[in-house]
Amino acid sequence: MSNEAVEKENILKPFSTVQLLNFCLGFFGLQFAWQMRIILSGPVTEGLGASPLIFGLIWLAGPVTGMLVQPIIGELSDKTHTIFGKRRPYLFAGAIFASLALWAFPNSAEIWEKLAGFCNIPEIAFGGLIIAAIMIWIIDACVNAAQGPYRALVPDLVPQEQHALANSYLSFAIGLGSVVAAGTAPFLKYVCNYQMSINAQFVMAALAFSLAMLWTCITTKEHKYKKNEFVETSAEKNEKVKGPSFMQKVVEFFSSSPEVAKICTLQLFTWIGIMSLNIFFTQYAIHTVFGVPDLTTATEEIKNSYMATINKATNFSSICFAIQNLICFLVSIPIGLLSTKFGNKRVHFISLITLALTFVGMGLYKEPGFVLVCMAIAGIGWASILALPFAMLSEFIKKGSEGSVMGIFNIFIAGPQVLVCTLLAWFVSQCAYTIPSGINYHWEYAFLIGAITLLIAAVITNLINEKK
Predict the structure, then answer these.
(1) Rounded CA gap, 17 and 25, in Å?
(2) Whole-angstrom distance, CA of residue 249 vs CA of residue 19
(3) CATH number at residue 443
(4) Is the C or the N end of the chain the one with fewer CB within 10 Å?
(5) Comparing C-alpha atoms, which of 109, 4, 2 is closest to residue 50?
(6) Nearest residue to 317 via CA among 349, 269, 278
(7) Exposed, middle or buried: residue 382 (CB in 10 Å: 0-12, 13-18, 19+)?
């Protein structure tokens, strides 16, 4: 095919509704796996002896790999030229390795026992917890390796005027994936009276991630390359042709417009709030809403005595996340349409204010029905967060740097998570109180702090000057 024919074929054409739905299917699988990790990592690691602080430190896997992996993978994917495309190799590899780790994570104690026996390793009290932490790091690294290039496909393949809508469809997929992931076990319990095991739920997540991403890799058509483009890429690797370094791209990214720094700051405060919910909600449901004492040092007999309540609380947490993401699923495309009509920042400002109020409600009042309503309303803000900051940023992305920009931008999503996993987890661990059956922690304090950061993010959103 001639260079002229390739250029003609690579002209961005508007996506139909069917194409947008097909495009976002891989993100459905990615979010399915991620939602299962959010809901069930707490009960698994607490059962292996993780205190609130240790639990937070294990959660560091997400932000640290996000800050390291996404910029690196984004940079690599910008420079990757294969017969399989620029982004697809990273999508497929991330899904396969994450799926293997998802299967292994709930079996960490058994894996440690077999490994220790095979290698004659001396008995270590927290051996299973070490394996679980390693699996969490692998899951998060692979999810990040797939997520950045997937986001970069939007400016790669979708016309500028459809960026907000395409990102809203990704929010739609995230909402649907989360609903199915969170709702399956409670549905089977309350409708079929069958309690799905944690192991089975992680196997289900692994299959959903790998199969959905495989479908995206097969059906998503990336750009073709001009003649000699592979040769030119090889020359770049041999430094015959030098492009801008990653740091130069960072400087260029922030110097492109003063609005870029505002959008990044907006993300920083937003994700402190969001991760205070994602990380601590299941533990909040178990220990605050249902009153289960801290069990990190409890005997197996005491743990077993609370198992029925823990299952009930875990199912409640799953229902809450399912309802939250169902609302996200329902409003994601309308939010994209409203932002097209009224502007991204206006819609996002209102969404963040609404989300902050739900956090305050859950922090002050812990009745299960009220918490469920708050989580439903929180789905509106969640849908906006998953789409509109990316749409605002896309106005300032230079062509050819999409993967790098998404990787840099992810630092302002992953960075605040470090604060939540360390300082906020430490703060919660210092807020212990005594109950008749032992000690407990004020997990709800995380939501009150999150509400403050979301209000700050709303103020910053209102200061952004969008392009006309």
Answers:
(1) 13
(2) 32
(3) 1.20.1250.20
(4) C
(5) 109
(6) 278
(7) buried
Q: How far apart are CA 254 and CA 262, in angstroms?
A: 10
Nearest to 338 by CA among 284, 391, 416, 378: 391
Distance CA 224, CA 393 (A): 26
Question: Does some domain include residue 238?
Answer: no
Q: What is the pLDDT of residues 138-185, one digit of tens each?
A: 998 888 888 878 888 888 888 888 887 887 788 778 778 888 998 898
Q: What are phi and psi of 86, to 5 degrees?
A: -85, -45
Q: Flag whether 240 is in a domain.
A: no
Structure tokens at 64: 């640290």
C-alpha span between 393 and 345 (Å, rounded): 11
Provide the H-helix boundaries in 365-444. Answer: 368-385, 388-394, 402-419, 425-429
Lowest model confidence (mean pLDDT) among 2-11, 287-296, 331-340, 424-433: 2-11
Domain with 215, as residue range(s), is 15-222+245-463
CB atoms within 10 A of CB 124: 11
* Within a domain: 231: no
Number of domains making up the chain = 1
Whether 237 has a pLDDT exceeding 90, the answer reads no
Domain presence at residue 7: no
- What integer pLDDT is reported at residue 123 of this predicted model? 65
- Residue with the bigger pLDDT between 235 and 406: it is 406
What is the reported pTM? Answer: 0.73
| Of residues 333 and 40, more confidently modeled | 40
pLDDT at 201 over 70: yes
Residue corresponding to tokens 């906020």: 424
DSSP string over 117-161? HHHTPPP-TTHHHHHHHHHHHHHHHHHHHHHHHHHHHHHHHS-GG
Q: Is 432 helix (H, G, I), strand (E, B) or coil?
A: strand
Instruction: With a cut of 50, say whether residue 232 has pLDDT above it.
Output: no
